[in-house]
Amino acid sequence: MNYVDGFIIPVANKDKEVYAEYSRKTSALFKEFGVINIVECWGDDIQPGKLTSFPQAVMLKEDETVVFSWMTWPSKEVRDAAWEKMMADPRFAPEAIPMPFDGKRLIYGGFQKLVEF
Fold first, then answer.
1. Which Gene3D superfamilies does the annotation name (predicted)?
2. Is residue 7 within 8 Å of residue 30, measured between CB atoms?
3. Are the C-beta atoms of 82 and 34 separated by less than 8 Å?
4. Residue 1 has what pLDDT?
């Protein structure tokens, strides 16, 4: 069964195109290592909440928006092997492809598919 990695990322508004280029570069590597598809969504209706919200989760600053992203893998095993290889691949190093966001505020997790329509 497919496996999904999900991300919530704070990105400076001025870096929207920089982020898109970062995504294109990293997506090529992810595809090389087996990802099926990647979806990147630029927030345009992200409201602060009273208890929880996307802005609160990433400590969103006034000049930022939230990127909601996910990638689908053939299986958790393929995903685990791919991440291990990518972390060792110099093409994926921060010096090779600098992250245009604060990685300390990125939220990431792996998910087993429960229902798909």
1. 3.30.70.100
2. no
3. yes
4. 86
